Amino acid sequence: MPRTFPAISILEVERKFRSLARIIHNEYFDRSSLLSLAGIWVRQRNGQWEAKVKKGGNFTNSRFEELLDPRDISKCIKDLTGIGYTEQETFGLERIAILSTTRKAWVADNEFRIVLDTIDFGHTVGEVKLQHQVNFEATSGLSIEQQKQRSMQAMDDRVAKFMERYAWAFCQGVPKGKLTAYFERNAI
């Protein structure tokens, strides 16, 4: 008599791979620490210019506006430093750090991006990110900057709730960022 199995089954299909292959090459730029002291990080990531402009928070829980258009990056640098160079001129900045990162990334709850970065010298740091592209208009009674701050506060609240809900997945302790670890390692 053939053997019968229960109607409820747990089926699994898996395919193995050796490792993840996402390597990110970052070069960071500044000029006499003017940008970093103002909370602006300019980098070339895999050959593409980016600037992260700090909009609040602290080291562990930070808020940034990301600039991807070289004209916007140039304007941001010029507004702060008075230096008006183009991307072809490295925006008049000097290279301050070069690091390669192996990134593992996941999406949770259909919108929260979790990344775990391991830098070429062994340092590891993770982030939970929530990114939205938003168009703001100065017609709602709030300035564009106030609208950005309000949106980032709501996003920050959602990230905090996400991390509380999945607290079991995140190690306790104070994280150290990539550049902090890089500069500590290369301190003379």
Overview of the structural elements:
The termini are far apart. Helix content is 24%, strand content 31%. The protein has a 7-stranded antiparallel β-sheet with strand order 4-3-2-1-5-6-7. A hairpin with a 3-residue loop joins β5 (94-108) and β6 (112-119). The mean pLDDT is 89. With 188 residues, it is α+β, with helices and mostly antiparallel strands. It has helices at 34-37, 70-81, 144-165, 178-185, and strands at residues 23-30, 40-45, 48-57, 62-67, 94-108, 112-119, 124-129. The protein has a single domain (23-185), classed as Hypothetical Protein Pfu-838710-001 (Beta Barrel), CATH 2.40.320. The radius of gyration is 21 Å and the shape is globular. InterPro entries: CYTH-like_dom_sf, THTPA, ThTPase_euk. One of its GO terms (molecular function) is magnesium ion binding. One of its GO terms (biological process) is thiamine metabolic process.
| Count of discrete alpha- or pi-helical segments spanning 4 or more residues | 4
CATH level 3 topology: Hypothetical Protein Pfu-838710-001
Mean pLDDT: 89
Largest sheet: 7 strands, antiparallel
Number of strands: 7
Radius of gyration: 21 Å
List its salient traits.
globular; Hypothetical Protein Pfu-838710-001; seven-stranded antiparallel β-sheet; 4 helices; single chain; 24% helix; 7 strands; 188 residues; alpha+beta
